[in-house]
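User:
Hi there, any thoughts?
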Amino acid sequence: MLRKLEENEIEVAVNLAYSLSKSPSTNSYPLRNSQEEFLDKFNQISKYPDDELLGFFIDNELIGVIYLNVLKSDLYLQTSSIFIKDNIDIVMPTFIEYLHEKYKGYEIYIGYTKENKKSINCLLSHGFQIVDSSIDQRIKRNEFRPSSLQHSIIKINQTNYTSFGEYHDSNETDIYWNSSRIKGDFNNWIIYSYWSDSQIRGSIAAKKSKMAPDELEIFSLAIDKDMTNKGIEEDLITAVLKDGFKNHNIENVLFFIESNDNNAFEYSKKLGFKVHSNYECLTAKL
């Protein structure tokens, strides 16, 4: 049976999620490292009335827990946790049916560690598609090896935001964080651009985490094709990381790159990034 969890059931849900997060074969995204992190997330349900914390029970035993982020204005759903202990062939179809009944017309995105083959294959068999297959790279402050900043890298503020917004939207057509959403949350972003001949030829946008204030994630790095392999990517990342470490008390940075992007792997490796995990995102229109 799938139902919303009560407040007194959160601790059991935390224990289940944490135990399954220890293995890549049962883990989901975003990654969390402790029971405290899961508890903080699941307790957010009281602050966001549209979100749902769901549990699946068989014979009164909790075998599945799902935290569902709901953005009604955007018809957008995303799982912040999805853990299934066993009976996935029962739990997953029941969850998908629930989504179709309650959220018709929405798009849903579900992230897993690449090794979680059972969950990924089950979703694929129910009409989901893989839209992102990435390497999850991370870097700590003391691991950072900055580039020498040889190019014209300029910080984006409210004054020059329009130029960035136009460039960002024309190059990043498939991500949730378009220029209007970024602008609405501007104070949580660090954005830089590369200029040549008085126009933007590359940009980077990184968002500070609300759950982990010392964490920054690079959501977008775009550059004109004829500008690649010239060290501009390294300079854009260096500008953001220097700013984050110096002015925003950032300690850890996340950067997802496409699994087959050898160029991105090499230049991020030069800066000190290390492979942390492998990520796959699946989506469906309900």
In short: Residues 232-247 form the longest helix (16 residues). The chain has two domains: 2-127, 138-278. The chain has a mean pLDDT of 96.
